[in-house]
Amino acid sequence: MERDFESRTGAVVVVGAGGGIGAAICRMFAERGADLAVTYRRGAAAVEAVAEEARAEHGRRACAWQVDLTDADAVAAFVDAAAAEFGGVHTVVYAAGPHVPMLHLSRVSPAQYREQLDGDAAAFFNLVHPSLPHLRTAGNGSLVAVTTAATSRFPVRDGLSSCTKSAVEAVVRGIAAEEGRFGVRANCVGPGMLTDGMAARLIDSGDLDERALDVARRNIPLRRFGGAGDIAEAVCFLASDRAGFISGQKLDVDGGYGV
User: Contact 98/198 with Cβ under 8 angstroms?
Assistant: First the structure.
């Protein structure tokens, strides 16, 4: 397990590497022997720090690109450049997504919903489409999308996340069904309430106050929130050969919220 990816040819592509979850995923892949091709839209310093940590602490190659995931041509150019730089791409991890305000669906305008779809579901497909030839070439290529536990059990006011992430999950299932003949696996990891990532931003923005957090804890059988490391562990497992017969699945990391 410690060196799951050391013998792989090419790199892991991680989009959304500057967030709390994305950074933890990059760190764990590097610890386990993977080279990294990472992206950012804004916040170059955070992603460059992730790449430098992989180089300095784990002796891995790591390069960062600035990419707008809503620009299909730019995403395709990045994927091809990463494959050329590292001699291939064996794993693609989607750990990105726009900020999700907590709103009842009745208060979400059609324009706001469309913007969320473009920034998440369409952006994901912009990444998947140019990645498939490289994952096929790898022979054991893996796609892992970080989505949300909210697609399994709907939390009130979280429709902008669960509805658009459901579209991401549908594409993942489709890739699993259609690309398995090329050795490509596709899976999802569904984070529940965490102390990192989107939940931390919602707390900071005031969308989740202490009362809401107490309600959320009571809805979780383990009565606590998870962390970015819990998500990274699930992502790295699903990308590894230890999960070589797992495809088209979603692993919720939610403390039992969905039961």
Answer: no
| Strand (E) or helix (H) holding 176 | helix 159-179
Q: 32 by DSSP, 3-state: which?
A: coil
Helix intervals (H) in 190-248: 198-205, 210-218, 228-239
Please name the residues in contact with 172: beta carbons below 8 A apart, sequence gap of 6 or more: 143, 145, 186, 187, 188, 248, 250
User: Which residues in the chain show pLDDT less than 70?
Assistant: 1, 197-203, 205, 207
Cβ-proximal residues to 219 (8 Å cutoff; 6+ apart), any chain = 257
Per-residue pLDDT tens digits for 26-58:
999 999 999 999 999 888 999 999 999 999 999
Query: What are the counts of helices (DSSP H) followed by strands (DSSP E) for the chain?
Result: 9, 7
Sheet hosting strand 62-66, strand order edge to edge: 62-66, 35-40, 11-15, 89-94, 142-146, 185-191, 250-253
Cβ contact 143:131 at 8 Å: yes
Among the listed residues 115, 45, 119, the one whose alpha carbon sits nearest the alpha carbon of residue 75: 119
Sign of CA dihedral 198, 250, 222, 236: negative
In the numeric block, the tokens 């790199």 are attached to 11
For 167, how many CA atoms within 13 A lie in the half-sphere containing its CB?
A: 18
**Burial label, 191 (beta-carbon count in 10 A; 0-12, 13-18, 19+):** buried
